[in-house]
Structures are given as structure tokens and as C-alpha cells.
Fold this sequence. Notes:
- Helices cover 34% and strands 19% of the residues.
- By secondary structure, the chain is an alpha/beta fold.
- The chain has a single domain (4-177), classed as 3-Layer(aba) Sandwich (Rossmann fold).
- It has a five-stranded parallel β-sheet with strand order 2-1-3-4-5, sandwiched between helices.
- It starts with a strand and ends with a helix.
- The mean pLDDT is 96.
Amino acid sequence: MGKRVLVISTSLRKNSNSDILANEFAKGAAESGNDVEIISLNNKTIAFCKGCLACQKTKECVIKDDSKEIVEKMRTADVIAFATPVYYYEMSGQMKTLIDRSNPLFTSDYKFRDIYLIAACAEDDETAVEGAEKGLKGWIECFEKCSLKGVVLGKGANEAGSVKNTPAVVKAYEMGLNVR
């Protein structure tokens, strides 16, 4: 039996470039014998963290919205892949909000060990993903049993679907294929 892989697509646009890359990663991971689930944040309600820290004692958030189910799936996954559009050289706001709301995981017996970042941006420069990567690494630093295993960037993705037929699609698929 392979690993339990959770792909979280944080774009709110259907069939976005980051969705395309996320689906290719998921396809590769499934073909390697892993149990793969994709969650889209599109049509999910995820409120901002209040910073009350009640979750550190109760292991769950006091805010009742869609993040509770997603965070539980994160806790039980072996691998988490975050897919995001890059806005102003950073992860999407909805990805950051979900990461903030995953604070109950900090004191939990989480399973995840391998984290991946899948991103798409309009820029043609490889460095465009550095802000998103730095932000995700900050979250990873709080979970000493896990690490960032790979990053793929679909650059020059100006229009919806423009990441298709680019090297990033192949890289995302191969990165998923190597999840073992």
C-alpha cells in the first residue's frame, strides 16, 4: 500500500493553471500506487484565524467552517501538496489562511512527513515562487517531523490553461510519480 497523499488546490478559479499542475502531480502520485485525494478550496468557507490559541489545548479550532475537515485530512495524510497561484510573489491569501487555520495540528500527532509546493504564476522568472516557498517553509519549520520535498513552478502562465504543454506539467507529474 502506498502513501496517503492529500493535494490541496488553493486557487478559487476553476481549471486554473495551479489546478492543472495539481492534477498532474496527483495523477503521477496515483500511478505510483498512492491513495490520492484532491481538495479544492473553491466554494469552501475558511475564516481567518483569531489567534485565540484555544486549539493548542483542545486540538480543534473554535471557528466552525470548512477548515475543520480539511485540517483533519491534513493530519492523517502522509504527504501534503499545496497548489497555489502566485499573487504578488507570494502564495494566495486562501492558502495562507488555511495554513494559519491548521494551527490545531501543532500539538497533534500528525502523520505528514513530505510537503510539496506546486505553483503557477504570470512571471517568467524562476524566482517568482520564492516568497510562496519561504512562507510554506515557515509553516514547515513548526513541524519538525516534515520537510519540503519538492517545488514545481509553472511560469509565464498569463491566461487560464496556459500552463498546459509546458515543462512544468511534466515536472509536476514526475514529482508526483516519485512519491513513494
